[in-house]
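lol so apparently i was supposed to do this last week
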Amino acid sequence: MTGAAQKAAKGLRRDFGEVEQLQVSHKGPSDFVSAADIKAEKVLRAELAKARPRFGFLMEEGGEVKGEDGHHRWIIDPIDGTTNFLHGIPHFAISIGLEMDGDIIAGLIFNPITDEMFYAEKGKGAFLNDKRLRVSSRNNLLDSVIATGIPFHGRPGHKPFLKQLERVMGGVAGIRRMGAASLDLAYVAAGRCDGFWEIGLQPWDIAAGIILVREAGGYITEIDGGKNALYTGNVLAANPKLHKQLSDILTAA
Ligand code: 2AM
Ligand code: CA
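anyway here it is w/ calcium ion bound
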């Protein structure tokens, strides 16, 4: 997984450099970014297939590809935080999760610009580069920094999101909206943020983050505590002391 991510990252670094130049052009860089996205996904798929030829795939661009092995599949987002990438903001990531019989057993989230590689394997802990990760120990919401994401333009969910935001922002030290859900989850695992919630996400935005948060000692569920965050795209992650408090605030009538 690390090898595949490093290889795809090379291309993304080159393309991101190009995008920074394209900001001033009239047409803008969006076609260029779609091409970069597809290229990176092809590299990831080829490298992972070389390592584990029988595993299946679920990819943001390529969709589902069944594997001969009916148990394992890679869940891949070649660029999470596409809007940042497109605007020359160096906050985006390659995200790779490994699912076995419906359970995420390994994950990697790599920001190729800052060179921060977050990874975790079930039962073996979560890491940032070589450092072991642990969620924060803050237990007072008033001291906490909570990350979130705003549903995209044109998608449903702005009204409910504003209600949730209103409830949370009065009771915390600060809210962050950074634009890459995978990195938000990695930041919860690293104790940089104390919690994160978002609605309307896709499995590839979340898969790797699930195992990172868990292996760092955090809780990750749906906002009401439900267990199917990966497929409903409704996610709440936090340290164990704040998870219930956030869930209660977010779901209050
Ligand atoms: P993407 O860049 O791969 O599209 C921003 O809120 C974060 O949410 C990004 O990680 C973005 O992933 C992801 N996202 C995916 N679908 C979304 C949606 N329908 N609304 C908001 N964010 C979405
Ligand atoms: Ca993406």
